[in-house]
Amino acid sequence: MRALGEQGETNEPEGLGMRSKALRPPAILVLTLGLAAVGCAPTTQVHGYVPPSADVARIRPGVDTVATVEEILGLPTSTGLLRDSAWFYVQSVFESYTYNPPRVVDRTVLVVNFNPDGVVTGVERFGVEDGRIVNLTARTTETGGRQLGVLEQIFGNILNLDAEAFEQ
Questions:
Q1: Neighbours of 63 (CB within 10 A)
Q2: DSSP annotation of 163
């Protein structure tokens, strides 16, 4: 029998040291795959506000006014261009993955229309399926003249003297 501490002797039960070493690569693989899966999960962001359906159902066309709509639903995200003829409540839900730009998952627009006297004439709800995709272009209008280089911009005004400044 060997004394404790001699070479090859451990305090672990027989075979346990080999089993823990054999479990290390699978454990590392599971941990790595778990972290990769978490990194691929989308991030969801909600912008704007649309009142709950129960509050919208309380709005009565022909009866409610601008003041009562403000009391029930709150102030809108934006208003109509001409004399506040409509109030718009807009809520957008964006989803983005780690290295990709955000994309619109859902958009809800609630429109409350008013007549010139400020009485509600109608309430409408629109979603992404009701909208149109508008492609914006990044075109620019070229300006006249020539482009100045860095050195021209730095040293351009050194010898550009104004004669009137020296006459005094």
A1: 9
A2: G
